[in-house]
Design goal:
The complex is a heterodimer of chains A (305) and B (164). Chain A is of the alpha+beta class. Helices cover 34% and strands 24% of the residues of chain A. Among the domains of chain A are: 12-72, no CATH class; 75-113; 184-263 and 289-300, Beta Barrel (Thrombin, subunit H), CATH 2.40.10. Chain A is built from six helices and twelve strands. Chain B is globular, with a radius of gyration of 15 Å. Chain B is built from seven helices and no strands. With 164 residues, chain B is mainly α. The two termini of chain B are 17 Å apart. In chain B, 45% of the residues are buried. Chain B has helices spanning 9-24, 29-32, 38-49, 56-70, 76-95, 100-124, 136-163. Chain B has one domain (9-163). In chain B, helix 3 (38-49) crosses helix 5 (76-95) and helix 4 runs antiparallel to helix 5. In chain B, 73% of the residues lie in helices and 0% in strands. Classes of the chains: A alpha+beta (305), B mainly alpha (164). At the A-B interface, helix 1, helix 2 and helix 3 of A face helix 1, helix 4 and helix 5 of B.
Chain lengths: 305, 164
């Protein structure tokens, strides 16, 4: 074996044992700094721009197959068109009723002198990829800061809340899903107004509700909607439906499982929502059940920092 | 084994990029948890094959790319990659003389070290990630090693033939 030593790498000059210790120290330092805040985001930005072509290349086969599929299967297109048409009619019908309800709601809110809910702006984003790491639940989106996406923005799909944006680069963003073990959504039980938190489990099909006392009024089939506390997620969107309620003998809390309403690992598109209505100062005077808890909303929110 | 033959940095980067694409291509979840770590074994192969060109620092930088793509704390995979590369540096002089199949036996513990460092950091970070299938990529990557090393060796040899 011959080694030319004219082209030195750092590790040729110092012993590998020492080098690996140095690298370990630097790495641990980086992890701590990265965990503490945004200080390293320029480094991340530079590296993620370098990684962009690779990620696009990885997406390419799936997307091409999709396009080819659509191109060749005219029958499926026609069927899909028919289904969408029917769906549209159905939704239009519901929307008419909704418009009336919204107007009524507005009037009642005016009577209560509470802050009115603004129209919500949305942006359709394409889901570029789901997490390749089986232990973290997130999606990558093709809309970034150039489209006005910001950290903390809520992500929904046609059925409910999906998650929130955690990283934004100029051309893309990453959103953590509600099923990530690090994510919690402040919710209320639609039937009773009971407030609690839905916590991710790492599986796309299950959330848990770890903070419900034994005497809480919850039943299988109850719909959980976002309560809007914490100010991250918009209020009143479906989050999940309760699938199991188990009472552990001797335990202080119920063992409650729920299935997310949104199609977390199946959808191709998602909506980014602007305007997360927070309880305004005027809302403090209203005797709504949400107000009793609004002071605790900061602690109530178990979001990832 | 053609250790010491210098292949261009461009070629190494190209193989790493290709391996990274293979690591990221979406596949059904059942396959995804057992997918071989193409990128990791490519890095380890170059650590073994290019002792004076691809060292610890290069392995660490390669790991940082994974951190950025996965969104993990910066340097988590970097550290794992550097530690695994160190293991590879310690044993590579034996590996040079061995046929590919026998190399595999020695590569398995290095891959295990890589996965263990990640497991350990996740544990310290308080992530509850301890399913048994976490260790599947170690098995699949080990099984892939002979074929993958053979392929990379052919690429290295082809390039040196062209450039003389």
């Amino acid at each position: 074996m011959k080694l030319d030593n004219d082209n030195h790498v750092l590790t040729r000059r110092i012993a590998p044992g020492l080098a690996v210790v140095l690298i370990a120290i630097v790495s641990i330092g980086l992890m701590i700094v990265d965990d503490a805040g945004e200080k390293l985001s320029p480094v991340r930005d530079v590296l993620s721009v370098m990684a962009q072509p690779i990620e696009m290349a990885a997406e390419w086969p799936g997307q091409t197959l999709d396009t080819l599929d659509r191109y060749f299967d005219r029958g499926a297109l026609l069927r899909e068109n028919e289904r969408l048409r029917q769906n549209n009619l159905l939704l239009q019908g519901r929307l008419q009723r909704l418009a009336a309800l919204e107007a009524e709601n507005e009037r009642i809110r005016a009577l209560l002198a509470s802050a009115s809910v603004l129209d919500q702006n949305v942006l359709i984003a394409r889901i570029m990829s789901v997490s390749p790491d089986p232990y973290r639940q997130y999606v990558k989106l093709n809309k970034g800061s150039t489209d006005g996406v910001f950290v903390g923005q809520a992500l929904i799909d046609a059925h409910g809340i999906m998650g929130q944006v955690t990283d934004v680069t100029p051309l893309g963003s990453r959103a953590i899903l509600i099923s990530d073990p690090n994510n919690g959504v402040p919710v209320e039980v639609n039937r009773t107004g009971l407030q609690t938190i839905a916590q991710g489990t790492g599986h796309a099909e299950t959330l848990t509700l770890p903070f419900l006392p034994n005497n809480a009024d919850v039943k299988v089939g109850d719909l959980l909607v976002s309560s809007g506390l914490g100010g991250r997620y918009p209020a009143d969107y479906p989050v999940a439906r309760i699938t199991s309620v188990r009472h552990r003998p001797g335990g202080e809390f119920l063992d409650v499982g729920a299935a997310p309403a949104a199609e977390l690992e199946r959808g191709r598109e998602a909506l980014l929502v602007w305007n997360t209505p927070e309880p305004g100062p005027a809302a403090k005077n209203t005797p709504s059940p949400a107000d009793g808890l609004s002071g605790e909303s900061d602690e109530a929110e178990a979001d990832r920092p | 084994m053609i250790v010491g033959v210098r292949i261009s940095a461009l070629m190494m980067i190209a193989t790493l990029a290709a391996a990274l694409v293979l690591t990221l291509v979406p596949v059904p979840p059942a396959i995804a948890s057992a997918r071989p770590a193409f990128y990791t074994i490519t890095v380890l192969f170059w650590v073994m094959n290019q002792p004076d060109r691809f060292g610890l620092l290069a392995a660490w930088l390669a790991g940082l790319m994974i951190d950025v793509i996965y969104g993990t704390p910066l340097a988590e995979h970097g550290l794992a990659m550097a530690v695994a590369a160190y293991g590879m540096i310690k044993i590579r002089e034996w590996l040079w003389g061995l046929p590919l199949i026998q190399q595999t036996i020695f590569v398995a513990p290095v891959l295990l070290i890589y996965e263990f460092v990640l497991f350990w950091i996740d544990g310290v970070a308080g992530l509850d990630v301890n399913p048994w299938y976490r260790w599947l990529p170690v098995v699949s990557s080990t099984l892939l090693w002979p074929a993958w090393a053979y392929l990379l060796e052919r690429i290295a040899r082809a390039e040196t033939r062209h450039t003389g």
